[in-house]
Amino acid sequence: MAAQPTLVLVLDLVGTLVFALDGALVALRVARLDIVGAVTLGMVTAIGGGVIRDLLIGAVPPATFSDWRYLTVATAGGLIAFLLGHHLERLSAPITVLDAAGLSLFAVTGASKALDFGLGVGQAVILGAITAVGGGTLRDVLVRRVPAVLHSGLYAIPAIIGSALTVAAIRLDVFGPVAAVAAATICFLIRMVGVRYGINAPGPPRRAQ
Predict the structure, then answer these.
(1) I want to staple 175 with a disulfide (CB 3.0 to 4.6 A). Which of 16, 36, 99, 169 is the partner?
(2) What contacts 124, CB < 8 A, 6 or more positions away?
(3) Minimal CA–CA distance to 159: which of 55, 1, 15, 7?
(4) How many domains in the chain?
């Protein structure tokens, strides 16, 4: 069973908006950029993962450039964050929540689109995770931060779990709004638990003193 095109599009656009808000808020809070920088970083965060995914699966030109709604939503998100960001720029919680929400939505849409293009189960899970973390990684590199995917174990891991749940639902012919929201919610909750309690993947063993 293929993923439902309309459902995936809606989730993709919502994820685009959420990540655009997130990227623009990072631009304001971390890098203190102007309106051009804020909107640009918001757009890169919003569309980066999707562009990487589409290039890897051969969906060219990427959906971002063949469907005007993606760039419109990404631009709008960046502008909204810039105009209202002064109310939120000192708070880390909105950025963290938006980042987790975007991660979760793109894990679902990335995995489902990979399956639609004929990739196998394992490849679809990987592509879902790449879609989820790609934009945030580009965002962090541009503001000269170590990308969260490299130092936070519960960043890529929730994305992989969300992608795997999506792939399982599609393969079992039960994918729909409920399954999609459930997969995204589980991904979101795992990410937020990791943030709340500072849980990361195991690090290297310490040397004996």
Answers:
(1) 169
(2) 111, 112, 114, 115, 163, 167
(3) 15
(4) 1
Asked whether residue 166 carries a pLDDT value surpassing 80, the answer given is yes
Query: Across all residues in the chain, what is the average pLDDT?
Result: 91
Task: Assign 34 a pLDDT band (cuts: 50, 70, 90).
Answer: very high
Whether 208 is in a domain gets the answer no
| Domain coverage including residue 48 | 5-197
Confirm whether 207 is domain-assigned.
Answer: no
pLDDT at residue number 92: 64
Alpha-carbon distance of 2 to 116, in angstroms, equals 6
| Sign (positive or negative) of CA dihedral 202, 104, 90, 79 | positive
Residue 202: inside a domain: no
In a domain, 45, yes or no: yes
Q: How far apart are CA 16 and CA 14, in angstroms?
A: 5
Provide the residue count of the chain.
209
- How many CB atoms sit inside 10 A of residue 7's CB? 18
